[in-house]
Amino acid sequence: MPWVIAGGGMGNFIPMFLFPLAQEKVSSSTAGILDSLVPIFILLFGYLFFGIKSRLTQVIGAVIGFVGAAMLMGAEGNEGRNDMFHAFLIVLATACYGLNGLIISRYLSGIHSFKLSAVVFTIWFGPSLVILGFSGFFGHFEGTSVQWQGLGYVAVLGLVGTALAMMLFYKLLQITSAIFASMVTYLMPIVAVMWGVLDGEELVWGHAAGGAMILLGVYLIQRKPKER
């Protein structure tokens, strides 16, 4: 149970508050680039605290993937509103994600992903509700159509972007490795660009180059060494 609490706190509860706070003063492109630090933190923490020795190709792949993500985000442009302290909050959140991946992979791999997700949400529901109460939400909510619409969007994000995504991520952690599973942070910008193209946005060379580097990084990380 302690590892479930720790994993849930690192993977959901703490980042859930750090990211919204950070993006008040940090542009979306910068946030996306910093979010791509997760595989780097997994390599670092895995070596320092979990005794995991990464192959050179994995380190190179993580670095290449990060550069690719930075190129992809750079192609989107920067809104010019970045603050060092708030940017550090995102770095702290990605460090939490890295620890969460290692904890799940090492100590909780035997628990079904659905059950693990359900337990994590149940444990952290109470503290989240307390913080929601102190935020003044209940005092300001008047039940207008706009507010209900906003709650609907939040519900969709919570169910699809958090609950379902977390179950899939936990499953990926259990059948692969923490470093490989963390590469989803590199793939998210690619998916975002694809949706943008479908919505009529322009595809520039930076998108293609960044996407190619990300895929190369993923390949290097998951490639198994040749048997001698």
UniProtKB/TrEMBL annotation:
GO terms for cellular component: membrane. It is found in: Membrane. The chain crosses the membrane at residues 26-49, 56-73, 85-104, 116-138, 150-170, 177-198, 204-221. Residues 5-73, 87-221 form the EamA domain. It comes from the Bacteria. Pfam families: EamA. Keywords: Membrane, Transmembrane, Transmembrane helix. Signal peptide: none annotated. It is a multi-pass membrane protein. Belongs to the EamA transporter family. This is EamA-like transporter family protein. It comes from Parapedobacter luteus.
